[in-house]
Amino acid sequence: MFTFIDSIENMAYLNQELLQKPYIGVDTEFRRTTKDNMRLGLLQVNEGEEIYLIDTILIDDPKEHCSFLFSDSVIKIFHSCKEDLEAVFSWTGKKIVNIFDTQIANAFLNGDYSIGYQGLVEQKLGIVLNKNETRSNWIRRPLSDSQLKYAALDVEYLIHLYKIQEKELSKTSKLMWLNQDIENLLKVTFSQSKAFPELDRIITKAQELEILNEFNKLVETISLERQINSTLLFSKKAQKDFLRLVLIEGLDLACEEITPWRSELIKDEMLDILR
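Given the sequence above, the corresponding C-alpha cells read:
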C-alpha cells in the first residue's frame, strides 16, 4: 500500500525516481507550534504506481534530496495547498514550484471553493474515505498503523482528480487562470499583507455600500457567465479590499495587484461602476 522512507539514502534514491515523473500527488502532515511556525511531521507522495511516506522528523537535512519538489518539470498536485507550502518551507527553507491545486480547480469548474479532499473524492470518484486521524500528533514517534494508512489515503486519489480536472480546464482558458492563481497564492503566502485605511475614511459609508453592492452584482453576473465559483472570482472581503486599493491607487494600479484574468473580466465594468 505504501513505502516508508526514513533514511537519507532511500530519500536520495527516491528523489531521482520522482524527478522523472510528469506529475505526483503530494500532501503533508504537520503540527503548528505557533501562529507563524509549524513543524513538518510527514510528507506523502503518490507517483502514480506507489505511495511513499517520508519521515521528515528522522530526515532532518533534506535540502539536497528533495529537489523533485522544486523542479519545474514535475507537477505537484495538492488539495488546498497553502498550509502544505508553509510546512514544506519550514522543513527545507525553499518554495515549491509548478503546483496544481484540486480545491482551486474545483472552484474554476463552478464547484464548491471550500470543499475538502474527502468530499471531492466522494463527489468525483464515488469513494468514501476514512478521516479518523485528522487531529493526530504527527510529530510523536512511532506513528501508528492507522496514522500511516490515513496519510497514504490523503494522496491516493490526487492524480485521479488531477486528470479529470485538467481535462475540463484545458477546454477553456481556465487552466491558464488556475496557474495565475497558484502563482499569486505563492506570492501571498510568503509575503506580508498590505495594511489599508478603513473605507469610511476615504468615502462615506453610504457610498461604500452602493459601490460594493454594484460590485457584488458584477461578480455574480460574471461568475454565472463564466461558470466559475463567485467566491473564487471575488469574495466579499476581496471586493472590499480591491475597492480600498482602487480608491488609494487608482483602478489601473489596483488591477496590476490582482491576477490578469480577473483584471480582464472586471476592469471595464468597474470603471462604469466608479463613474
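Residues 199-274 form one domain. Try to locate this feature in the C-alpha cell string yourself.
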